[in-house]
Amino acid sequence: MRKLTAVSLVIAAAMAVLLAPHNAAAMNGCDTNCASCHKLDKQEAATILSELNSNLAVESVDVSASKGLWEIVVRPKNEPKGERGILYMDFSKGNVLIGKLVKLKTKEDLTTKRNMELNKVDYSSISTKDALYLGEKTAKYKLIVFTDPDCPFCKKFHEEIKKVVSQRKDIAFNIILFPIAKLHPDATKKSKSIMCTKSLQSLDDAFDKKPLPEPSCPSKAVEDNIKIAEGLGLTGTPAVVFPDGVLIRGAMPAEELIRLIDK
After folding, report:
1. Residues in contact with 84: Cβ distance below 8 Å, sequence separation at least 6, in sequence order
2. What would the CATH number be for the domain defined by 36-118?
3. Which single residue of 92, 149, 150, 238 could bond 190 by disulfide (Cβ 3.0 to 4.6 Å)?
4. Closest residue by Cα to residue 160 from 141, 147, 150, 179
């Protein structure tokens, strides 16, 4: 009888331990908050990533949507307003993932969604007084495009936004001329010529490599446009700003533009 009592006491003690509330610190394990056990700060992340690229500045470190991975937000070291991007690092700190995180059930691209949030700008602060206008004046959605008359990608993108306007009367574009002089030495002069006429046809002519008249007005609109673009951290063209502040660098098809607007 005494033996049974002793066994019962052991079982009771074991059950008490199993049924007690979990305590990560006491049990020396992890709870649902992985960051309570795994640590990575910005300085350590920057040190590790410097082996990959010494020109990266780390802006933030958080646990990603996928447990076991850190989400590290980076940008070019010497560009405080430069484009943000995301890298992933596993908790062992020995592996870096460069790519997209996709939620299998919904097929949602979590990385692109997060990148859009990170690179938002203040749409209302962008002056469009010197912009060319493409579309209906009454359009509900007015996007802002930064373009360079000598940029081949800008020409392709210009054709895509024309398609958008032809398909959707509720979408229009304010087109800001942003010549990249380092890449296109004649782009500033062409931009000034276009601004003197304030003509979409002049922009089309520039894209088609047709000769433009000499600038005939004292406007400083192009210089002002360059300041606006650089203030947003832009270093290239094309770029488009959506009404909600999402800034996307590079060209895209008309269908993708419409999808993002409707989303």
Report:
1. 59, 73, 74, 75, 115, 118, 119
2. 3.10.450
3. 149
4. 147
Please report how many Cα atoms fall inside a 13 Å half-sphere around the Cα of residue 194, on the Cβ side: 30
Q: What is the pLDDT of residues 165-209, one digit of tens each?
A: 999 999 999 999 999 999 999 999 999 999 999 999 999 999 999
pLDDT digit string, tens, across residues 81-102? 889 999 999 999 999 999 999 9
pTM: 0.78
d(CA 178, CA 191): 8
Locus of tokens 């087109």:
175
Helix (H) or strand (E) holding 62: strand 56-63
Residue of 222, 151, 226 lying closest to 191 (CA atoms): 222
Domain limits of the chain? 36-118, 123-262
The tokens of 242 are what? 């959506």
What is the tens place of the pLDDT at every residue in 227-246? 999 999 999 999 999 999 99
Mean pLDDT to the nearest integer, 39-58? 93
For residues 70 and 197, what is the distance between their CA atoms, to the nearest angstrom?
52
| End-to-end Cα spacing for the chain | 73
CA distance 132 to 130: 7
pLDDT grade for 16, boundaries at 50, 70 and 90: very low
